[in-house]
Amino acid sequence: MIRSFALLSLVCFSCLLRADGKKPNFVFLLVDDLGWGDFGCYGAEFYETPHIDKLAKDGMLFTNAYSACTVCSPSRAAILTGRYPARLHLTDWIAGHKKPFAKLAVPDWKMKMDHERVLLPEALKEAGYATAFLGKWHLMPIGQPDFKEHYPTSHGFDVNVGGREWGQPKGPGKYFSPFGMPGLDDGAKGDFLTDKLTDAAMVFLEEKKNENFLLYFSYYTVHGPIMSPEKLTKKYQEKLKTFDNKRNENVNPRRAGMVEALDQSVGRIVAKLEELGLAENTVIVLTGDNGGDYDNTTSGLRDRKGFSHEGGVREPLIAKWPGKIEAGSRCDEPVIGMDFYPTFLEVAGLPAREDEHLDGVSIWPLLKDGSSELKREKLYWHYPHYHRTKPYGAIRDGDWKLIEFFEDGELELFDLKADPFEKNNLAGEDPERAAMLLKELKKWRRSVGAQMMTPNPAHDPERGKGGPKKARKKK
User: Fold this and answer.
1) CA angle, corner 328, sides to 284 and 373, nearest 5?
2) CATH classification of 382-455 is 3.30.1120.10, yes or no?
3) SS3 call for 133
4) Which pLDDT score, from 0 to 100, does residue 466 have?
5) In terms of DSSP bridges, do strands 104-105 and 213-218 run parallel, antiparallel, or are they unpaired?
6) Which H/E stretch holds residue 320?
7) Which of 269, 270, 316 is nearest to 289 (CA)?
8) pTM greater than 0.85
9) pLDDT per residue over 240-289, tens digit each?
10) Is 110 helix (H, G, I), strand (E, B) or coil?
């Protein structure tokens, strides 16, 4: 009886949501190596992002949005599957670092998504959506026999422009023509990759203006190599001469130019939706896959991409849907990458796929009311790899965050409400709380079948320097 009532409520909700009979379109904008402080609406003063700032002004800005991992491939897989990387056993960037002499051995993890999974684009495609993927994919098993079976077009996308095994532009011109990417013409000498991918987005929107669509635009920017159009680089070189860097921002003129090129792309997409009369029926989401790759891109959050602290995983998140999401609203509730899959299904009035997006929850209640709360209390991370930090696991429970380092069992405990920059490790002062959170973290790992590291028989302390590394300085 209760199940029937719940189903009836969902049907009624879907009818109310789509009273005009239309399902909404989705534009999902995923930025690579996006720092929490890269946009004006998140505090940037050196970088100029008027179009993204307006997107936030016209929609909702999240202050506690997270990626599912501190590096790209796992975060991207989590978005598409609605599952924690630990559950997928896809836990590092493909193909990861090799540390043959480190203290712990990395498990035999996956470098692809299983085809038996129904991914977000496949679920929407089944409901009649046209689907397009643009930009960085980096979810392909490099060098394995089934390499070509894992392009975006083998995972639910009708169109693939630019997606291949690369984690960054590696064509002859890198961010400038020629690009060497599938579905993308090289254009003219000097053409910039972000602009060319945006041109492709314009074509897709024009072609599908009379259909429901998912435009999944996965920018290569602002991943290295750090390059930007000469005009934008010169603009920020001039700005730097008189800029008073009170907030200790990253003031690399080329990176600033990359961010502004991104901002211009977002502006073009929003303008095109308005031109085509699609803006009112289109949900736009903008976020990142992991923290910025350079110092001073995180508005003071500790560390950056690849590290276990907030600077590696807390991300900007902006959502806009005119008339449905309150303009200028804000949400402080913690959300994470797996949540987009069930959210998009609910917003489209489609049934949940609880056997697929096992770890994501719909954040539609938050989008309707930023002051509301989710029933979920805990978020988790699992990184059984060496990168810039030692292998670790982490849990966030309310305002509390615990990090466990696998090599020696070292614990770090932070009260993120009182100490958002993770300066004060309270594990020694509050051992009971640390023990309780560690117990919850281990329980979760067992529940998702997380792969654990094992002692490495080839360990050589002199040759196995696996981390941690110091954050790289960038002027």
Assistant:
1) 80
2) yes
3) strand
4) 53
5) unpaired
6) strand 314-320
7) 316
8) yes
9) 999 999 999 999 999 999 999 999 999 999 999 999 999 999 999 999 99
10) coil
